[in-house]
């Protein structure tokens, strides 16, 4: 979420993101499934070309949270292992989808080098990068490189000029890697959350939902975006409508996107 590192929301600018208790409380408060940025629907065109289940059958999902992505990837043939620091998130995912997960700090995983074909993170790096100066998100990316046999994917709101060199430097110990950064439009839900944040930067999402007038304004902006792809720049609004899919491949893996399936 664009606001996360800009400190413009009461929800998304917290050092607490690195505390397991913070996440446990959050998942207890909102026990439903929720996906940061994108879902399988937006990602499938990328993943089925860049990391097809035939090339990348085993997947480590880093910081799975309450995302639906693991279950949807399981349905098309990936064998997904979920890890998260929050036992509450893992318990809820088990009840919701039947998928098991392991409680683990993604910066110090108890798996051998190269245990998974694909290691994927969506949103965990960004959440932890909210704490300025913290090494934790970089340690997680290094660990992703160590565990990946051939492919690392990081899904983030960070544009290449902000993120690519940082990821490359964290992955260098397990490299070399070839990098591609691809733009992906946010899911309608994330788009709507970003609209609420950019229109009401000092308010929580819950309070906007309680305020009929504010909610109607956000719904109107969402309808305009859906129809015309406008973001209200004329009103001084700045918001990001896309996230980035960073693909890192070991040179020994054939160039993704060129293999015929
Ligand atoms: C922003 S959420 C992203 C959730 C999910 N990947 C998604 O796309 O919706 C970040 C997730 O990372 C987990 N997390 C935070 N710190 C972690 C750590 N050190 N190791 C593993 N998971 C962590 C949190 O519990 C939370 O589920």
Mean pLDDT, nearest integer?
89
Strand order of the largest sheet: 3-2-1-4-5-7-6
**Low-pLDDT stretches:** 1-13
Note the gap between the termini.
33 Å
CATH topology, by name, is Rossmann fold
CATH class: Alpha Beta
Assign an overall shape.
Answer: globular
CATH homologous superfamily classification: Vaccinia Virus protein VP39
Share of β-strand residues = 15-25%
- Helical/strand content category: alpha/beta
- Cα-atom radius of gyration: 18 Å
Indicate how many domains the architecture comprises: 1
Biggest sheet overview: 7 strands, mixed
Total of DSSP H or I helical runs spanning 4+ residues = 10
> Which second-level CATH architecture applies?
3-Layer(aba) Sandwich
Order of helices and strands: HHEHEHEEHHEHEHHHE
Quantity of strands, as a count: 7
The kinds of small molecule bound in this structure are: S-adenosylmethionine
| Helix proportion | 25-40%
């Amino acid at each position: 979420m664009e606001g996360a590192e800009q400190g413009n929301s009461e929800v998304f600018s917290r050092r607490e993101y690195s505390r397991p208790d913070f996440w446990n409380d959050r998942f207890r408060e909102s026990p439903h499934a929720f996906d940061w940025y994108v879902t399988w629907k937006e990602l499938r065109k990328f993943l089925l070309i860049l990391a097809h289940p035939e090339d990348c059958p085993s997947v480590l999902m880093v910081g799975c949270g309450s995302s639906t992505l693991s279950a949807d990837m399981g349905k098309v043939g990936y064998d997904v292992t979920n890890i998260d620091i929050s036992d509450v998130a893992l318990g809820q995912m088990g009840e919701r989808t039947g998928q098991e997960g392991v409680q683990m700090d993604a910066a110090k995983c108890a798996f051998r080098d190269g245990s998974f074909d694909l290691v994927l993170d969506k949103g965990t790096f960004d959440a932890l990068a909210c704490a300025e100066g913290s090494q934790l998100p970089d340690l997680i990316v290094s660990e992703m490189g160590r565990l990946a046999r051939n492919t690392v994917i990081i899904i983030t709101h960070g544009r290449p000029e902000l993120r690519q060199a940082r990821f490359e430097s964290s992955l260098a110990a397990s490299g070399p890697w070839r990098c591609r950064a691809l733009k992906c439009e946010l899911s309608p839900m994330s788009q709507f959350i970003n609209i609420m944040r950019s229109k009401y930067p000092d308010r929580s999402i819950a309070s906007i939902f309680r305020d009929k007038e504010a909610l109607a304004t956000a719904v109107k902006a969402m309808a305009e975006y859906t129809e015309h792809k406008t973001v209200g720049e004329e009103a001084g609004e700045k918001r990001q409508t896309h996230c980035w899919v960073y693909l890192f491949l070991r040179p020994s893996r054939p160039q993704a996107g060129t293999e015929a399936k």
